[in-house]
Amino acid sequence: QVQLVESGGGLVQPGGSLKLSCAASGSIFSVYHMGWYRQPPGKQRELVAVIATGGRTNYEDSVKGRFTISRDNAKNTLYLQMNSLNPEDTAVYYCNTSPSFLSWGQGTQVTVSS
Predict the structure, then answer these.
(1) What whole-number distance in Å separates Cα of residue 36 and Cα of residue 69?
(2) What is the DSSP letter of 89?
(3) Residue ranges of the chain with pLDDT lower than 50?
């Protein structure tokens, strides 16, 4: 099965930026819609951004205008550019298909704090 490995998280101050990466072990981006999900502390995992096979993107309302999802099919890598981060964005971030059916990776922790 395809493995997913997220990276790029860290500690950032409010208003800062981070770019997350998700490396897939197989060529799936041209076959499946892909999404970035996050799980805030003590809450359920939620879908925040989707990129369709054709390239159309969609975002959860709270991240619209701040987050940008993209992909590099040749590198089998999915990205999430996050700008204007605020403490409510603190979460473990994961990538998966949309809807999700692959095994979840370990995720990458994003902490927004001063």
Answers:
(1) 8
(2) G
(3) none
